Amino acid sequence: MSNKINASVAIQVLPNTCENKEVVRIVDKVIEYIKSKNLEMVVGPFETTIEGDYDELMNIVKMCQIIAVEAGAESVMSYVKINYKPRGEILTIEEKIKKYIQ
């Protein structure tokens, strides 16, 4: 794993399934996968934000689709926001939200 933080990604994974419990179960599998990467992350009610090296994050985004399908989703829609700064470092998650955390 690279220590370079030149990108952050917010990803919302929406499995194609009718049951709310099944959506939660599949999304939990995706979050479990993201967490296994040991990157800085914040799970929110609509999306999960992670930060690190751009190439590593793009691979994680790709794998989130595969994990969701392997967990039982017939298909998946994902919404991704990417902040990329190839020279230097981005504002970190902590820098963005620390004043709001109590």
Task: Give the CATH architecture.
Answer: 2-Layer Sandwich
Strand ordering within the main sheet: 2-3-1-4
Helix percent reads 25-40%
Number of helices in the DSSP assignment:
3
Mean pLDDT figure: 94
Strand portion: 25-35%
* CATH structural fold name: Alpha-Beta Plaits
Structural class: alpha+beta
SSE sequence, one letter per element: EHEEHEH
Q: What does the overall shape look like? A: globular
Description of the structure:
- This is MTH1187 family thiamine-binding protein.
- Belongs to the UPF0045 family.
- This protein is α+β, with helices and mostly antiparallel strands.
- The protein has one domain: 2-Layer Sandwich (Alpha-Beta Plaits).
- The chain has three helices and four strands.
- It has a four-stranded antiparallel β-sheet.
- A hairpin with a 4-residue loop joins strand 2 and strand 3.
- The longest helix is centred in the first third of the chain and has 17 residues.
Task: Quickly describe the structure.
One of its GO terms (cellular component) is cytosol. The protein is α+β, with helices and mostly antiparallel strands.
Sum up the structure in keywords:
single chain, 102 residues, alpha+beta, 38% helix, 26% strand
